[in-house]
Each structure stands twice: as C-alpha cells, then as structure tokens.
C-alpha cells in the first residue's frame, strides 16, 4: 500500500491538475495518478522544426480568465489568431466566399435562442423540425460533426443546449493561442504541485472501505480521504467501481459518447491564401465534418492551416493508412485554396478517434436516449468520490477553461 494522502486525483489533464492545486491550497496532501506517459490529456503540444504545434486544444478567448491568468503568471506570449479575409464554403466542385456577417454555425441559435427542445429529442430532430434551406441544413450537419464529434442523430438536443449555455462570453472562442503551445498551461499547473504526478499508472478499481477510498492500479494500492476522477466519462466507465449509488453512477457514465476527431496542422513557406483575400477559414459540406482555419502564430515563422475533421468521416479516415489520409487531406485543402495547399512543408496529424485515455475529442457528449442532464448530475454526484472534467464544467463546458473550473469546483465541494 502506498502512503495514504488526503486527496487522490485520477487524471493529469487540465481538470486533474487544477483539482490537485486547489486541494493543496486547502491544505490537503494530494497525489495525481496519470495513465499516460505525459500530462495534459487532450492538451498535447509537440516541438517541431517550425515551432510548437498543438495536436489538441489550441484556442482561447479573452473571457477565459483561468487560462489567461495562468499564461500571464508564467510570462507566456499570447498570440492573436488571424481573422482578416473572406471565409469559404466548399460544396461539391464549387467554393463560395462567405460575407463577413455569414456564420456557418448560425443554426446553433435554434438551441441558444429558441424554445427548449422537446424531451428526448436529438439534434437531428431539431434540425428536421426547423426545415432549414438545404444549403443551411448541409452546413448544420458538418458543423455538428466537427464541433461535437458525432452526427446530429446521436446527440441529445437538450444536453447540447445546456452545454452551449455555459459559454459565458459574447466573443468568439478562437481569439488567441499560446505561441509556445497550450502545453504551457499544463506546465504552469503542474509546476504548482508539491508532489510530482505518478505517470503510466492506469487505475483499475475504486472502492470505499470504511472511512477511506482505496484506488487500485496494476502495481500499487492507494488510499485517500477523497478521490477526484477527471478521466472523460467514456474512459472513466471502464474503471471497476465499488461505491454507494453504484447503479446511478453506471447509468450516468454510460450516457456519454466520445467525440471522433482528427486534427491536422499543415505548415507552409508563405500564407498564399491571404494573397487571394482569404482568411484561411473553410467549411466543407462534403466531406461532412471538415473545417479549416488559419492557425498561424505571430512569430514570423512558417504559416499554418489547421484542419479539424469530426464525426463519422473522421472515424472512416482513422481506418485508412496514414499515407492515404495524407493524400485525402491534401486533396481537400487544394479544393478550397488551390494547388499550393497540396504542397505543405509538413503535416502534423493527431487521430483522437478511440483514444485509449481520452476517449476522443474535442470532448464526449451526452448521447441521444440518455438523460439530458447527465453532465450536471455527474458533476454533482458523490461526496468522497467525485467527478470533474471539461464535459462537466459549470462554465465554458468543453474547453480547457471549463476543465480548470470543473477541477476547482470538484475540490470546493469536498467535505
């Protein structure tokens, strides 16, 4: 048996590290257990010949104060994301320049501004009832797949509405990025811990024994007064729990489906799209779920296009050989931006489909047929064993900002 602590945190992503820091600030002895060989979870920055590249989370807006405070305290450079120029909608063999006021995600107003969805309805039901023009309906399908990593018929509409309601800002989410990558936030959080996280330590069992919680891994048993579990629900449900209210917990965890996403960063020697008056933003209706943006950093180094492919198309591509995925991406970039887009200096790929420790990306979602309030109930579940994560956040749900706030909130409600 390892030395007992006051608080064990399962998961070394933003939520877990924030929970451990908050616990230590309360005077608790804390230990983080991380299944992977690295910290960060769905934050993953790698060093390349042309600078740091975020394979996971990347975007920040000016109201995400927890992330901004960490970056400021660590003296990290915040780079504005490029926004000038026209965006594109790519359909079949055609591409159309979008007016500045036109937003591909405008359909989300059906959820944010309209009446609450009927109980048990899916996002597909909502879109069908809205009877959108075909062009708008096609955009809604592709934006849904990219944002949520699942097709509209697999998503509970009320759960999506609740998620959108936690976005406490009138600003776009893609205002800034960290020049050194989002991993700098993870480094800043981890640097505040008194005990280093234990790496490569997947948790097998969590059980309550008398007045303590015992956590079993392949190599050791750990005991604590409290446990905060920050593994995403589709991963957390594979842990063997022996806890009070076991049936309710199992039902809540089963209500989530992991998002399917592949992220690409294509690096070029010059931002050729800007010379055509383009912003680098493109939304494709075919393949469904493909969205591109200018991800360049303001350091004068090689410019970048960042592509996000979500939903069933991401799952299909994930089953292809790497070389074939590379060819597919080059073809799609050339459809929008011309032949130069098919000749990047480098392509950095991150396949988040069926990720063993994150489940997927950007997040997991409440599936159609599950309780719409599953995220809120899981965030409030338990007393000595509690849950946290971006999916459960009280604000900015689904973002790193939300993960940090969720980790802190979980510790705040411990007895």
UniProtKB/TrEMBL annotation:
Pfam families associated with the record: Amino_oxidase
Bilayer-spanning residue ranges: none
Keyword Oxidoreductase recorded: yes
Chain residues that bind FAD: 34-35, 203, 391
Cofactor(s) this protein requires: FAD
UniProt entry keywords in alphabetical sequence: Oxidoreductase
Family: Belongs to the flavin monoamine oxidase family.
UniProt keyword annotation of Ribonucleoprotein present: no
Entry binding sites for substrate: 308
Region feature (Disordered): 82-101
Upper lineage: Bacteria, Bacillati, Actinomycetota, Actinomycetes, Micromonosporales
Annotated protein name in UniProt: FAD-dependent oxidoreductase
Organism: Natronosporangium hydrolyticum
All residue ranges annotated as the Amine oxidase domain in the record: 15-414
